[in-house]
Amino acid sequence: MAVTRLVGECEKGTCATLYRVDGTVDLLVQGYDTTDAETAGLDVPAGETVVRIPAEIIERYAREYLAR
Known about the structure:
Number of helices: 1
Mean pLDDT: 90
Number of strands: 5
Distance between the termini: 26 Å
Number of domains: 1
Oligomer: single chain
């Protein structure tokens, strides 16, 4: 699967980042592990996970890709 980096918390390196799966409209999110306390009350099915990302990443994505 090929991906394109859209926006991230930092310009380069390994940080919270939003990617597009090439040839699709699907997105991948790289974020921070959460603890059980942070996700208490969420019903997360097997095969899924919850990650935390800074809101700025979604805001930048909306400005740069959805406002076109």
